[in-house]
Amino acid sequence: MARIVGGIACSHVPAIGAALDKGNAGNPYWKPYFDGTVPAREWLAKLKPDVAILIYNDHANALSLQLIPTFLLGTAAEFPVADEGFGPRPVPKVYGHPKLAWHLTESLILDEFDMTIANEMPVDHGLTVPLSVTCGQVDQWPFKVIPLCVNVIQYPPPTGVRCFKLGQAIRRAVEEYPEDLRVVVYGTGGMSHQLQGERAGFVNQDFDRNFLDGMVSDPEKLTKISHTQYMRESGSEGIEMVMWLAMRGALGPRVREAYRFYRVPTSNTASGLLCMEPA
Amino acid sequence: MSAPRDYESIPGTYVYDAERGRVGYHLNMFCMSLNDPENRKAFKADESAYLDRFPLTPEQKEAVLKRDWLGMLKVGGNIYYTIKIAFCDGLTFQDVAGMMCSMPKEDYAKMMMDGGRTPEGNMFKPGASPEKK
């Protein structure tokens, strides 16, 4: 039987990918960030997952405003790395797990989550940066990846409670899958940041630290945060943290915290990295 | 159930909601077209003619031509899309962020190094205190 062995919350700041790709990870600005990610990489390597379900948002690359699925699941065998306007990131191709992805699709839709199905799509930094952060610079990704996109670009994104319930449904679906697979779930984006308007650069460290605590000990409380509260208190793009709640829902009621790292700034963003195992 | 737009009381923030989506669609789809290198070349060769391929309002076209980053948000631009114009110009996100809040690039970078723009005084527009919400 498949089972979920870990959950990772990870910011997907594009500049993190650029720093790695351009060989700047060791410079004084970036070294403290990348040093802080090493324990997460070591933890994940020991966990030896077969598949990751990676919850992220596309940034006007695979999707545009033409079609805006609230939840989308990638069922392809492989996903090319997107050209985001300056050439694709020099990272390995992402290989999917079509059998598990189709099982998830069926199971989630029958469980009342109306997933959009993507048989072909490129993946952008929202997916590849968390992989780089947690796997390092590798010739091939050490596990298969099932992309799960959430709309956070066109207001309103799905609510935190809806995302949390989606995570719970993902857990049920994974546990029904007959093959022995070790599955990790990523929730990406965040933490507090604002990329737009006169308030650009907004960061709220108290909000973020409370959110990190809540992810471990009381995620139900976090599901009560309203969209306006996210945007007001964690910046307009901080609302991405609803994707962390989807991951947390997939881990079950209790977790063991394996590692936590928080840093301001990472480019325009407060970045967080949180590794957990179902307890 | 449509929620009240209580986020309008957040200062300096342009939520890309139904209202902005309705007016901004073509502006943002123009930005999306810049993902294609051929289109970037055509835009650079004659910006005004390229923009005429899209049904933009005069205000939207002018905001693009003037690179009025804040103005673009006010006429329906979505930052994830308008930033593609900046990438086409060779600018970074931080360059544009500084311009949107009228801060020199160095000052903006220093603000981020010092922990970012603080929540104090930046969560409500003047007169829109939590009590009056």
Question: Overview of this structure, please?
Answer:
The complex is a heterodimer of chains A (279) and B (133). With 279 residues, chain A is an alpha/beta fold. Chain A is built from 9 helices and 10 strands. Chain A has one domain: LigB-like (Protocatechuate 4,5-dioxygenase, Chain B, 3-Layer(aba) Sandwich). Chain A has an 8-stranded mixed beta sheet, with helices on both faces. A two-stranded antiparallel sheet of chain A has the order 4-5. In chain A, strand 9 and strand 10 form a beta hairpin. The mean pLDDT of chain A is 97. Chain B has 133 residues and is an all-alpha fold. In chain B, 54% of the residues lie in helices and 0% in strands. Chain B is built from 8 helices and no strands. In chain B, helix 1 packs parallel to helix 6 and helix 7 packs across helix 8. The model of chain B has no long low-confidence stretch (mean pLDDT 93). The chains are: A alpha/beta (279), B mainly alpha (133). Chains A and B meet through helix 6 and helix 8 of A and helix 1, helix 6, helix 7 and helix 8 of B.
Key traits:
heterodimer, A: alpha/beta, eight-stranded mixed sheet, two-stranded antiparallel sheet, B: 133 residues, mainly alpha, Protocatechuate 4,5-dioxygenase, Chain A, 2 domains, globular
Adjacency order of strands in the biggest sheet of chain A: 6-3-7-2-8-1-10-9
Q: Find the CATH superfamily of chain A.
A: LigB-like
CATH class of the largest domain in chain B, named: Mainly Alpha
The CATH topology of chain A turns out to be: Protocatechuate 4,5-dioxygenase, Chain B
Choose one word for the global shape of chain A.
Answer: globular
Structural class of chain B: mainly alpha
Total number of distinct structural domains of chain B: 2
Mean pLDDT of chain B, rounded to whole units? 93
